[in-house]
Amino acid sequence: MNKPLRTIFTFALAFTAAGVLAASTNAQADIIDVPGAVKSIPQVNAGNVLTNYDSSDLKNIDNTSPIGNMDRKYNQGTIDPTQDNAGDTFATTDATTTTANSFKTQWFLPDGFNVTDYQHGNFQSVALDDSGNVYFVESNGSDTNLGVIIKFDTNKLKQLGLENDPMALWNAFNYFNPYTEDGVTHNNQYDDLYESMKDTFKTVKSLTSKEATVKAAMNDLANAKRTTQAKYRKTSSTTKKHLAASLKANAKKMAADRTKLTALQKQIAHGQSQIAKIKAKNPELFKNIEIAETAQLSPQVDIGHGQTLTFNPQNKHLYLVEDNTLTDLRNRDENNTVLEMDPNTMEPIRQYNFKMFQGTKGNLQLHTLVFDKNGNAYWGRKNGMGYMFFYGRLDENSVKFAAAPEKLKTRGGSPNQGVAFNNVNNRIYVVSDDVLTSIPVDKLTAGTATPDDVNYSVFQSKREWECLAFDSQGYGHLLALWPAELMKSTAPLN
Fold first, then answer.
1. Does residue 11 have a pLDDT over 60?
2. 31-160+294-489 has which CATH code?
3. Which of 7, 163, 359, 381 has the greatest number of CB atoms lying within 10 Å of its CB?
């Protein structure tokens, strides 16, 4: 199989209206530097960070949870690209105890984002920041602990008119999938078109740079003219003669620059028309290039189980738990490992290494993680047929956790798919298949929550629910599998 071209993200900038050439002379992905890169990362070795507790001392919230999908049997579907596909809708059932709602497909996700040939549509996490970006973790599969982090600028997708096109991402990335015959063909078509346009791109880039220089010079002349005119109005007749000469020279330079600018813009327009003619030969290819350019991809990295990518609204950073087993840590010498990343560059900021001793022998391991708007950290775990929560801090100033004084007596789903936090209603959500359970976090941590405080949203999708994240309006964004899709609630969740 041909080596993947990593689908044209960096060079896709060349196809924008400005016609600016990207730095690379080959079709390359916008590969971002993320965890797993060979570099020195500041380490925070925090030791034991958990306040010890006895489970029997925690108060039960005597709730009776409605049941979602408890048996882990799923209805797996496939996507037929030859048919119109409006997406799926998962509506709440009568077992829901809060306002009725639905999840509707926003985008189907492709088989993968073409970084490795392990891809098979296995997405494990979704996270949203407060700048319009959405992040996915794509897993290579069970027992590998490896995968890829994908960042999408949803504002750019909206500008392309794709906010309501469920097939847009699926089509674009499968179109350039270098592990299929069609994908190889499309990548080769891209190569041929690039070769025919690269000289024009280079020329347009150079002309655009010159245009910017001339515009800056004209702006300086305009500012100088205003300053000189102000002095001219206030000064004596002797000085006015000198200022008049300066204004005349200024006007002469401005006219020359205006002529130069007109000539440059004519040349740029000609170059862009040449590019437009070539783009017209294969509009589908260039449409998919524009879609692909909205993403950044990581190389293959250690993602652990992959279900814990999350955004901290207080420090504006991403966190990824590298939980390489699905159990607690094997002994008290092992550490939980959490990576903190800059969402702009995706470069690691620091790595946290810590233990969480429980009882006389236990060392708990993180498998879920979420933050509220104040930077408080939360995670949860199954407790018999119920569920318990932990709260604390996880940042450069403090690493500490304690068990919440209350726990849920029952839960409605079997797998612990994750926790999510809605900063609009200040509730923490337990995510399991076909059931979302939420509780006000203030009452939870104060130990005053009652069964009436617990909300349940129940569904009958029979799909695997991997992760939930919230936007600033309180809408839920659900990552569901087989086929992989990002879904959005039709109203804010409560």
1. no
2. 2.120.10
3. 7
